[in-house]
Every structure is written in structure tokens, then in C-alpha cells.
Amino acid sequence: MPLRVITGQAKGRFLKVPRGWGGRPTSDRVKESLFNILGPLVPGASFLDLFAGTGNVGIEALSRGASRAVFVENNRQAVRAIRENLAQTGLGDRAEVLPLDVLAAAGRLKGQKFEIIFLDPPYGQGLEVPALEALVANDLVKENGLVVVEGSRRRQMPARVGCLKLCREHRIGDTVLAFYRPGVDGEED
After folding, report:
1. Distance of CA 46 to the CA centre of its chain
2. 85 neighbors 16 (Cβ within 8 angstroms)
3. How far is CA 97 from CA 75, 82, 139, in A?
4. How far is CA 40 from the centre of its chain?
5. Which of 120, 98, 149, 129 lies closest to 53 in space, CA to CA?
6. Contact by Cβ (8 Å): 154, 148
7. Whole-angstrom Cα distance, residue 47 to residue 10?
8. Would you give the distance in Å from CA 35 to the centre of its chain?
9. Are 57 and 49 in contact (CB under 8 A)?
């Protein structure tokens, strides 16, 4: 499945997917739904792309005007693809690539604040909640920030993880996007 940048500065550019890589990139249909929902939140935002794969989603955010994006991915082939895709789209000057496990990267980024955080963990491995807990523990979500988890619609996402409260779910075929916002500790659901 060819990946492309949908709109913005790098509109129409195709992105490299490593040959034989076992990842599952976010489809154009899901990516378009995501960015239709995010809309005006993206320009000027700091964007964190966890389990970044090819960098498809973070690159789309940069193309649409995000001020910076940090890509976290521990697969060497995928890291190489992210770097090549950033160079090919001309968006690398506003990007940082961390070739680390998500939990290790969260610790390294401790205290940096992001307006938008996107997670697309491998399906069926139960990584969603530990990743969300790491975001909270390392204080990575801005007070008015938004965290989006892409997952299988067969996976029930928790209503709350630490201070993060589930505020919306959006289904696209077999995929669900779960949106979390920081809430006040002790606040009723």
C-alpha cells in the first residue's frame, strides 16, 4: 500500500515503506479522518509520534504546519525510513527521531510538553495503557493537549489512565481512534 502526504507543504509526496517490514502503517483513510478531527489544532503544535513506523502521521502533521515533531520508533528499518521520508519531504529541520523503545523515550523526553501525541502501537500486544501511563508519569502532555490512540475496534480502551480522560472515540472500519485529554485529578467522570 503506497503511503502519501495528503495535504500541506509536502502534499502528494510518497513515503517509503521498508521492504519486508512487518509494520501496519496508518492508512490514508484513517489519517484523513484523524486530521479532519484535529483540524486547527495542528498548525503551530508540537507533535509526538509514538510507535512511529514510517513516520507517516508525524510527517502529515509537519506538512500541515506543526511547529515540530518527535518520532519514536525502535525498529531500525523503520527509523531509516523515517529519516529518508523526512529528507524526501523537506521537513527534517523541524523533526527529531529517537530510535528507542517508547517507554525509554518517554523517560528521555520527561518534562517536554506536547500539544498532540499520537500512538499507534502494534495491535494485540497490550501496549496502549503502559504507553499512556508513561506519558502521564513523565509529564509529556500539555495542560490543554490531546492524546490519540489508534487501535483495533475489538480493543476496549479505558475511560481513564492517570489524569488522561477518554473524551471521544471515532471508528473507521476496523480501526478506532481514542482521544484523551488531561483532566483534573479527582474530577468525576
Report:
1. 11
2. yes
3. 12, 8, 20
4. 17
5. 120
6. no
7. 17
8. 11
9. yes
CB atoms < 10 A from the CB of 168, how many?
A: 12
pLDDT of the residue at 12: 94
Cα–Cα distance, 159 to 164 (Å, whole number): 8
Those residues whose C-beta lies under 8 Å from the C-beta of residue 157, and which sit 6 or more positions away, are 128, 149, 151, 166, 169, 176, 178
Report the percent of the chain where pLDDT is more than 70.
Answer: 95
Rounded to two decimals, the pTM is 0.94
Indicate the SS3 state at residue 145: strand
Query: How far is the C-alpha of 164 from the C-alpha of 60, rounded, in Å?
Result: 25
| Residue 21 pLDDT | 67
C-alpha grid cell for residue 166? 477518554
Look at residue 188 and tell me whether its pLDDT is greater than 90: no
Judge contact between 62 and 118, C-beta under 8 A.
no
For residues 59 and 35, the answer to whether their CB atoms sit within 8 Å is no
How far apart are alpha carbons 52 and 50 in whole angstroms? 5
